[in-house]
Amino acid sequence: MVKVLTAFVERSSGRLVAVLLVTALGLAAAGLTGPGGHGLAVTSPWYLWGVNALLAVGLYGSASGITRDAVEDVRIVVAAVTVGVALKAALIAAVMYLASGSTTAMILGVAVAQIDPLSVTAMIGRSKMSGRARSLLLAWASFDDPVTALLTVYLVTTTLSPAAGGSMGGLASYGAGLAANAAFAAAAGAAWWLAARRPARRPLKEHPAFPVVATVLLAGLLALAAWQFLMLGVALVGLFYRPRGVEALVGRVTSVAFYLAAFVLGMLLIGGVDVGLGLVLGLAAFGAQVVAGLLIGRRFDTADRVRLALGQQNGITAIILALALQPHVPAAVRVIAPAILTVNVLHIVANAVWDRIPVPVPVPVRGGAHAPRPAPVPAPFPTFRPLAVRHVLAMGSHTRKR
After folding, report:
1. Strand (E) positions, 289-369?
2. In angstroms, what CA-CA distances link 182 with 58, 60, 155, 163, 254?
3. Can you give the pLDDT of all 402 residues of the chain as single tens digits?
4. Phi and psi (nearest 5°) for 364?
5. Which domains are delineated in the chain?
Protein backbone atom coordinates (compact mmCIF):
# COMPACT_ATOMS: atom_id res chain seq x y z
CA MET A 1 0.00 0.00 0.00
CA VAL A 2 2.84 2.38 0.88
CA LYS A 3 4.58 1.66 -2.43
CA VAL A 4 1.36 2.36 -4.35
CA LEU A 5 0.86 5.69 -2.57
CA THR A 6 4.52 6.63 -3.13
CA ALA A 7 4.29 5.86 -6.83
CA PHE A 8 1.06 7.86 -7.08
CA VAL A 9 2.53 10.91 -5.33
CA GLU A 10 5.62 10.82 -7.56
CA ARG A 11 3.46 11.35 -10.64
CA SER A 12 2.58 14.95 -11.56
CA SER A 13 -1.15 14.38 -11.11
CA GLY A 14 -0.69 12.50 -7.82
CA ARG A 15 1.62 15.20 -6.49
CA LEU A 16 -0.94 17.86 -7.34
CA VAL A 17 -3.72 15.94 -5.57
CA ALA A 18 -1.54 15.49 -2.47
CA VAL A 19 -0.73 19.22 -2.36
CA LEU A 20 -4.41 20.11 -2.73
CA LEU A 21 -5.33 17.79 0.14
CA VAL A 22 -2.66 19.23 2.45
CA THR A 23 -3.68 22.78 1.51
CA ALA A 24 -7.30 21.91 2.28
CA LEU A 25 -6.21 20.60 5.67
CA GLY A 26 -4.49 23.92 6.36
CA LEU A 27 -7.62 25.80 5.36
CA ALA A 28 -9.72 23.60 7.65
CA ALA A 29 -7.28 24.16 10.52
CA ALA A 30 -7.53 27.92 10.01
CA GLY A 31 -11.31 27.68 10.08
CA LEU A 32 -11.20 25.96 13.46
CA THR A 33 -9.50 28.99 15.04
CA GLY A 34 -12.73 30.93 14.76
CA PRO A 35 -14.13 33.47 12.32
CA GLY A 36 -11.79 36.14 11.05
CA GLY A 37 -8.48 34.64 12.21
CA HIS A 38 -6.02 32.08 10.92
CA GLY A 39 -3.66 32.10 13.90
CA LEU A 40 -0.64 33.29 11.90
CA ALA A 41 1.11 36.62 12.44
CA VAL A 42 2.81 37.01 9.08
CA THR A 43 4.86 39.97 10.30
CA SER A 44 6.35 38.19 13.32
CA PRO A 45 10.06 37.31 13.31
CA TRP A 46 9.22 33.63 13.84
CA TYR A 47 7.06 33.53 10.73
CA LEU A 48 9.73 35.22 8.61
CA TRP A 49 12.50 32.95 9.89
CA GLY A 50 10.35 29.85 9.36
CA VAL A 51 9.60 30.84 5.76
CA ASN A 52 13.31 31.48 5.13
CA ALA A 53 14.18 28.09 6.67
CA LEU A 54 11.70 26.31 4.38
CA LEU A 55 13.14 28.14 1.38
CA ALA A 56 16.73 27.28 2.39
CA VAL A 57 15.85 23.59 2.70
CA GLY A 58 14.13 23.60 -0.67
CA LEU A 59 16.99 25.35 -2.44
CA TYR A 60 19.63 23.06 -0.94
CA GLY A 61 17.58 20.01 -1.86
CA SER A 62 17.24 21.14 -5.46
CA ALA A 63 20.91 22.10 -5.88
CA SER A 64 22.26 18.96 -4.20
CA GLY A 65 20.23 16.84 -6.61
CA ILE A 66 22.16 18.12 -9.65
CA THR A 67 24.41 15.42 -11.07
CA ARG A 68 27.81 16.11 -12.61
CA ASP A 69 26.60 15.46 -16.16
CA ALA A 70 23.63 17.80 -15.65
CA VAL A 71 25.76 20.83 -16.45
CA GLU A 72 27.49 19.54 -19.57
CA ASP A 73 25.88 22.35 -21.59
CA VAL A 74 27.16 25.11 -19.31
CA ARG A 75 26.47 27.97 -21.70
CA ILE A 76 22.88 26.86 -22.27
CA VAL A 77 22.29 26.44 -18.52
CA VAL A 78 23.71 29.90 -17.81
CA ALA A 79 21.49 31.37 -20.54
CA ALA A 80 18.46 29.57 -19.08
CA VAL A 81 18.93 30.84 -15.52
CA THR A 82 19.86 34.40 -16.50
CA VAL A 83 18.32 35.41 -19.80
CA GLY A 84 15.56 32.82 -19.43
CA VAL A 85 14.54 33.92 -15.93
CA ALA A 86 14.70 37.62 -16.84
CA LEU A 87 12.70 37.05 -20.03
CA LYS A 88 10.02 35.05 -18.24
CA ALA A 89 9.78 37.55 -15.39
CA ALA A 90 9.46 40.45 -17.84
CA LEU A 91 6.75 38.71 -19.89
CA ILE A 92 4.73 37.75 -16.82
CA ALA A 93 5.11 41.22 -15.30
CA ALA A 94 3.87 42.85 -18.50
CA VAL A 95 0.79 40.62 -18.59
CA MET A 96 0.06 41.25 -14.91
CA TYR A 97 0.36 45.01 -15.37
CA LEU A 98 -2.02 44.94 -18.33
CA ALA A 99 -4.47 42.78 -16.38
CA SER A 100 -4.42 44.72 -13.10
CA GLY A 101 -2.85 48.10 -13.80
CA SER A 102 -0.83 47.71 -10.60
CA THR A 103 2.95 47.63 -10.33
CA THR A 104 2.66 45.61 -7.14
CA ALA A 105 0.94 42.79 -9.02
CA MET A 106 3.96 42.61 -11.32
CA ILE A 107 6.08 41.32 -8.41
CA LEU A 108 3.77 38.33 -8.00
CA GLY A 109 4.82 37.12 -11.44
CA VAL A 110 8.39 36.56 -10.26
CA ALA A 111 7.20 34.06 -7.65
CA VAL A 112 5.93 31.67 -10.34
CA ALA A 113 8.62 32.31 -12.95
CA GLN A 114 10.84 29.42 -11.82
CA ILE A 115 10.45 25.70 -12.54
CA ASP A 116 9.96 23.39 -9.57
CA PRO A 117 13.01 21.05 -9.36
CA LEU A 118 11.25 18.49 -7.17
CA SER A 119 8.50 18.04 -9.76
CA VAL A 120 11.08 17.84 -12.55
CA THR A 121 13.07 15.21 -10.64
CA ALA A 122 9.94 13.11 -10.09
CA MET A 123 8.93 13.45 -13.74
CA ILE A 124 12.34 12.99 -15.35
CA GLY A 125 12.39 9.19 -15.11
CA ARG A 126 9.19 8.82 -17.15
CA SER A 127 9.94 11.60 -19.61
CA LYS A 128 10.55 10.84 -23.30
CA MET A 129 13.14 13.61 -23.60
CA SER A 130 16.69 12.85 -24.61
CA GLY A 131 19.35 12.61 -21.92
CA ARG A 132 20.80 15.98 -22.86
CA ALA A 133 17.39 17.69 -22.67
CA ARG A 134 16.68 16.06 -19.30
CA SER A 135 19.97 17.34 -17.91
CA LEU A 136 19.25 20.85 -19.17
CA LEU A 137 15.75 20.96 -17.67
CA LEU A 138 16.95 19.58 -14.33
CA ALA A 139 19.84 22.06 -14.12
CA TRP A 140 17.54 24.89 -15.28
CA ALA A 141 14.96 24.04 -12.60
CA SER A 142 17.59 23.76 -9.88
CA PHE A 143 19.51 26.96 -10.62
CA ASP A 144 16.65 29.34 -11.37
CA ASP A 145 15.20 28.93 -7.86
CA PRO A 146 17.85 31.04 -6.05
CA VAL A 147 17.94 33.54 -8.93
CA THR A 148 14.17 33.99 -8.65
CA ALA A 149 14.34 34.26 -4.85
CA LEU A 150 16.98 37.00 -5.01
CA LEU A 151 15.09 38.80 -7.78
CA THR A 152 11.95 38.77 -5.63
CA VAL A 153 13.82 40.24 -2.66
CA TYR A 154 15.37 42.90 -4.89
CA LEU A 155 12.00 43.94 -6.32
CA VAL A 156 10.39 44.06 -2.87
CA THR A 157 13.32 46.11 -1.53
CA THR A 158 13.32 48.63 -4.37
CA THR A 159 9.57 49.06 -4.81
CA LEU A 160 7.85 48.32 -1.51
CA SER A 161 10.36 49.00 1.26
CA PRO A 162 10.35 52.63 2.42
CA ALA A 163 13.92 52.24 3.70
CA ALA A 164 15.27 51.15 0.33
CA GLY A 165 16.50 54.63 -0.49
CA GLY A 166 15.41 54.52 -4.12
CA SER A 167 16.68 52.30 -6.89
CA MET A 168 20.35 53.02 -6.14
CA GLY A 169 19.84 52.02 -2.52
CA GLY A 170 18.09 48.83 -3.61
CA LEU A 171 20.86 48.08 -6.10
CA ALA A 172 23.50 48.59 -3.41
CA SER A 173 21.57 46.28 -1.09
CA TYR A 174 21.34 43.70 -3.85
CA GLY A 175 25.11 43.90 -4.47
CA ALA A 176 25.84 43.54 -0.77
CA GLY A 177 23.58 40.50 -0.68
CA LEU A 178 25.47 38.89 -3.55
CA ALA A 179 28.77 39.52 -1.79
CA ALA A 180 27.46 37.98 1.45
CA ASN A 181 26.20 34.92 -0.42
CA ALA A 182 29.57 34.51 -2.16
CA ALA A 183 31.45 34.77 1.14
CA PHE A 184 29.11 32.24 2.77
CA ALA A 185 29.61 29.73 -0.06
CA ALA A 186 33.39 30.34 -0.13
CA ALA A 187 33.72 29.65 3.61
CA ALA A 188 31.72 26.43 3.34
CA GLY A 189 33.74 25.43 0.28
CA ALA A 190 37.05 26.01 2.05
CA ALA A 191 35.95 23.88 5.01
CA TRP A 192 34.79 21.09 2.70
CA TRP A 193 38.08 21.21 0.73
CA LEU A 194 40.16 21.03 3.89
CA ALA A 195 38.15 18.03 5.07
CA ALA A 196 38.86 16.26 1.80
CA ARG A 197 42.50 17.36 1.33
CA ARG A 198 43.85 17.33 4.88
CA PRO A 199 47.53 16.33 4.73
CA ALA A 200 47.23 13.21 6.85
CA ARG A 201 47.11 9.48 6.43
CA ARG A 202 43.34 9.55 6.08
CA PRO A 203 41.23 12.59 5.11
CA LEU A 204 38.48 13.67 7.49
CA LYS A 205 35.83 12.71 4.92
CA GLU A 206 36.81 9.05 5.31
CA HIS A 207 36.38 9.05 9.11
CA PRO A 208 33.36 6.95 10.23
CA ALA A 209 31.92 9.84 12.26
CA PHE A 210 32.29 12.40 9.48
CA PRO A 211 28.80 11.95 7.92
CA VAL A 212 27.12 12.67 11.25
CA VAL A 213 29.30 15.70 11.97
CA ALA A 214 28.87 16.99 8.40
CA THR A 215 25.09 16.62 8.63
CA VAL A 216 25.01 18.61 11.89
CA LEU A 217 27.16 21.31 10.28
CA LEU A 218 24.82 21.33 7.28
CA ALA A 219 21.88 22.00 9.60
CA GLY A 220 23.85 24.89 11.08
CA LEU A 221 24.61 26.28 7.61
CA LEU A 222 20.93 26.15 6.68
CA ALA A 223 19.94 27.87 9.92
CA LEU A 224 22.50 30.63 9.31
CA ALA A 225 21.31 31.03 5.73
CA ALA A 226 17.70 31.31 6.90
CA TRP A 227 18.69 33.94 9.49
CA GLN A 228 20.62 36.10 7.02
CA PHE A 229 18.65 35.13 3.86
CA LEU A 230 21.69 33.69 2.04
CA MET A 231 19.67 31.72 -0.50
CA LEU A 232 22.09 31.93 -3.40
CA GLY A 233 24.85 30.80 -1.05
CA VAL A 234 22.74 27.80 -0.02
CA ALA A 235 22.29 26.80 -3.66
CA LEU A 236 26.05 27.10 -4.28
CA VAL A 237 26.80 25.03 -1.17
CA GLY A 238 24.45 22.33 -2.43
CA LEU A 239 26.65 21.85 -5.49
CA PHE A 240 29.59 20.46 -3.48
CA TYR A 241 28.64 19.99 0.19
CA ARG A 242 27.16 16.50 0.01
CA PRO A 243 28.00 14.31 3.02
CA ARG A 244 27.96 10.58 2.37
CA GLY A 245 24.54 9.04 2.99
CA VAL A 246 22.73 12.36 3.42
CA GLU A 247 20.82 12.16 0.11
CA ALA A 248 17.87 10.19 1.50
CA LEU A 249 17.64 12.44 4.57
CA VAL A 250 17.66 15.58 2.41
CA GLY A 251 14.92 14.13 0.22
CA ARG A 252 12.68 13.39 3.20
CA VAL A 253 13.31 16.78 4.84
CA THR A 254 12.60 18.58 1.56
CA SER A 255 9.31 16.71 1.14
CA VAL A 256 8.30 17.59 4.70
CA ALA A 257 9.16 21.24 4.03
CA PHE A 258 7.11 21.16 0.84
CA TYR A 259 3.95 19.87 2.49
CA LEU A 260 4.43 22.08 5.54
CA ALA A 261 4.58 25.10 3.22
CA ALA A 262 1.40 23.90 1.49
CA PHE A 263 -0.31 23.56 4.89
CA VAL A 264 0.64 27.13 5.86
CA LEU A 265 -0.54 28.32 2.46
CA GLY A 266 -3.92 26.74 3.14
CA MET A 267 -4.14 28.51 6.49
CA LEU A 268 -3.58 31.87 4.78
CA LEU A 269 -6.26 31.09 2.18
CA ILE A 270 -8.92 31.63 4.85
CA GLY A 271 -9.17 35.16 3.43
CA GLY A 272 -10.28 33.84 0.02
CA VAL A 273 -8.70 33.58 -3.44
CA ASP A 274 -8.60 35.84 -6.48
CA VAL A 275 -9.50 33.32 -9.16
CA GLY A 276 -9.49 35.77 -12.08
CA LEU A 277 -6.09 37.34 -11.50
CA GLY A 278 -4.65 33.99 -10.41
CA LEU A 279 -5.80 32.40 -13.67
CA VAL A 280 -4.16 35.22 -15.65
CA LEU A 281 -0.94 34.79 -13.68
CA GLY A 282 -0.89 31.04 -14.27
CA LEU A 283 -1.53 31.38 -18.00
CA ALA A 284 1.17 34.05 -18.26
CA ALA A 285 3.72 31.87 -16.42
CA PHE A 286 3.05 28.85 -18.61
CA GLY A 287 3.11 30.95 -21.79
CA ALA A 288 6.39 32.61 -20.77
CA GLN A 289 7.99 29.18 -20.36
CA VAL A 290 6.81 28.25 -23.87
CA VAL A 291 8.60 31.30 -25.29
CA ALA A 292 11.76 30.80 -23.21
CA GLY A 293 11.86 27.05 -23.79
CA LEU A 294 11.63 27.40 -27.56
CA LEU A 295 14.42 30.00 -27.54
CA ILE A 296 16.77 28.23 -25.11
CA GLY A 297 16.24 24.86 -26.76
CA ARG A 298 16.60 26.03 -30.34
CA ARG A 299 19.57 23.67 -30.89
CA PHE A 300 17.56 20.63 -29.84
CA ASP A 301 15.29 18.60 -32.08
CA THR A 302 11.57 19.35 -32.30
CA ALA A 303 10.44 16.83 -29.70
CA ASP A 304 12.91 18.07 -27.06
CA ARG A 305 12.14 21.73 -27.81
CA VAL A 306 8.43 21.16 -27.29
CA ARG A 307 9.00 19.29 -24.01
CA LEU A 308 11.28 22.07 -22.74
CA ALA A 309 8.59 24.59 -23.71
CA LEU A 310 5.97 22.57 -21.80
CA GLY A 311 8.22 22.04 -18.78
CA GLN A 312 6.78 24.75 -16.51
CA GLN A 313 5.78 23.44 -13.08
CA ASN A 314 5.40 25.23 -9.75
CA GLY A 315 5.99 23.76 -6.34
CA ILE A 316 7.85 24.42 -3.11
CA THR A 317 9.67 27.61 -4.19
CA ALA A 318 6.56 29.28 -5.60
CA ILE A 319 4.59 28.42 -2.45
CA ILE A 320 7.30 29.67 -0.11
CA LEU A 321 7.81 32.87 -2.11
CA ALA A 322 4.06 33.46 -1.81
CA LEU A 323 4.41 33.08 1.97
CA ALA A 324 7.42 35.43 1.95
CA LEU A 325 5.57 38.07 -0.09
CA GLN A 326 2.44 37.96 2.08
CA PRO A 327 3.69 40.47 4.71
CA HIS A 328 4.52 42.97 1.92
CA VAL A 329 1.73 42.19 -0.57
CA PRO A 330 -1.49 41.13 1.21
CA ALA A 331 -2.90 39.75 -2.05
CA ALA A 332 0.11 37.47 -2.67
CA VAL A 333 -1.32 34.20 -1.39
CA ARG A 334 -4.81 34.57 -2.81
CA VAL A 335 -3.40 35.30 -6.30
CA ILE A 336 -0.39 32.95 -6.40
CA ALA A 337 -2.27 29.91 -5.03
CA PRO A 338 -4.73 29.63 -7.97
CA ALA A 339 -1.86 30.49 -10.33
CA ILE A 340 0.14 27.49 -9.09
CA LEU A 341 -2.89 25.26 -9.62
CA THR A 342 -3.38 26.66 -13.13
CA VAL A 343 0.27 26.11 -14.11
CA ASN A 344 0.34 22.51 -12.90
CA VAL A 345 -2.96 21.60 -14.55
CA LEU A 346 -1.74 23.11 -17.82
CA HIS A 347 1.49 21.13 -17.52
CA ILE A 348 -0.32 17.83 -17.02
CA VAL A 349 -2.84 18.40 -19.82
CA ALA A 350 -0.39 19.83 -22.36
CA ASN A 351 2.16 17.05 -21.89
CA ALA A 352 -0.55 14.38 -22.02
CA VAL A 353 -1.78 15.80 -25.34
CA TRP A 354 1.77 15.99 -26.74
CA ASP A 355 2.43 12.38 -25.69
CA ARG A 356 -0.48 11.26 -27.90
CA ILE A 357 0.87 13.01 -31.01
CA PRO A 358 2.97 10.60 -33.09
CA VAL A 359 6.41 12.00 -33.81
CA PRO A 360 8.24 10.57 -36.87
CA VAL A 361 11.52 8.91 -35.93
CA PRO A 362 14.38 9.81 -38.27
CA VAL A 363 16.28 6.92 -39.90
CA PRO A 364 20.07 7.11 -39.48
CA VAL A 365 22.09 7.18 -42.71
CA ARG A 366 25.78 7.09 -43.50
CA GLY A 367 27.89 9.88 -42.05
CA GLY A 368 25.99 10.07 -38.75
CA ALA A 369 23.25 12.33 -40.12
CA HIS A 370 19.53 11.66 -39.71
CA ALA A 371 17.17 11.95 -42.60
CA PRO A 372 13.91 10.30 -43.63
CA ARG A 373 14.26 7.28 -45.89
CA PRO A 374 13.64 8.33 -49.52
CA ALA A 375 10.75 6.76 -51.37
CA PRO A 376 11.77 4.08 -53.89
CA VAL A 377 11.86 5.25 -57.50
CA PRO A 378 10.59 2.69 -60.04
CA ALA A 379 13.15 1.65 -62.64
CA PRO A 380 12.35 2.60 -66.26
CA PHE A 381 12.89 -0.99 -67.45
CA PRO A 382 12.65 -4.37 -65.74
CA THR A 383 15.99 -4.94 -64.11
CA PHE A 384 15.64 -8.71 -64.04
CA ARG A 385 15.82 -9.12 -67.90
CA PRO A 386 18.62 -6.80 -69.08
CA LEU A 387 19.59 -8.95 -72.10
CA ALA A 388 16.04 -9.01 -73.49
CA VAL A 389 15.74 -5.26 -73.13
CA ARG A 390 18.98 -4.67 -74.99
CA HIS A 391 17.90 -7.06 -77.71
CA VAL A 392 14.59 -5.17 -78.25
CA LEU A 393 16.39 -1.81 -78.38
CA ALA A 394 18.88 -3.18 -80.90
CA MET A 395 16.07 -4.45 -83.10
CA GLY A 396 14.40 -1.03 -83.08
CA SER A 397 17.62 0.64 -84.07
CA HIS A 398 18.14 -1.84 -86.93
CA THR A 399 14.59 -1.22 -88.18
CA ARG A 400 15.03 2.58 -88.25
CA LYS A 401 18.23 2.21 -90.26
CA ARG A 402 16.44 0.21 -92.90
Report:
1. 363-364
2. 19, 15, 20, 24, 24
3. 545 445 545 566 778 889 999 999 999 988 887 544 555 677 788 888 888 898 888 888 877 877 666 656 677 778 887 888 889 989 999 999 999 888 888 888 888 998 888 788 777 777 788 878 888 888 888 778 878 887 887 778 777 655 444 444 456 666 777 788 889 999 998 888 877 665 555 666 667 777 788 888 889 999 998 888 888 888 888 888 888 778 788 888 888 999 999 999 999 998 889 999 999 999 999 999 999 999 998 888 888 999 999 999 988 889 999 998 988 888 899 999 999 999 999 999 999 898 888 766 555 555 544 555 555 555 444 444 444 444 444 444 444 444
4. -70, 140
5. 2-151+249-356 (1.20.1530)
End-to-end CA distance of the chain: 94
Distance CA 215, CA 212 (A): 5
pTM as predicted:
0.78
What values do phi and psi take at 18, rounded to 5? -65, -40
